[in-house]
Write a structure and sequence with these properties.
This protein is mainly α. Helix 3 (47-57) packs across helix 4 (62-71). The protein contains 4 helices and no strands. The radius of gyration is 18 Å and the shape is elongated.
Length: 75
């Protein structure tokens, strides 16, 4: 009986987890607007542009922005 309870509880806990949306939870679009102000032809796959936008628009730092851009596929 305990095993079934643990399985059900684990299932409920995992079902509550949802991945971030592809736009990083930027509901208002303010990051996209900020990126367009920095680069008229913003390419999120360009690591240099991605890091610059992350630092300026998302208030990140070089280390975390570089990692985030790499994970998003920037090269």
């Amino acid at each position: 009986m305990r095993v079934i309870f643990v399985i059900v509880l684990s299932t409920v806990a995992l079902a509550a987890c949802t991945p971030e949306s592809s736009s990083h939870a930027d509901v208002t679009g303010s990051i996209d607007n900020c990126a367009r102000k920095l680069y008229s032809q913003y390419n999120p796959k360009d690591k240099k542009q991605c890091v610059a936008v992350c630092i300026a628009c998302e208030r990140g730092v070089v280390t975390t922005c570089s990692t985030a851009c790499t994970l998003r596929g920037a090269q």
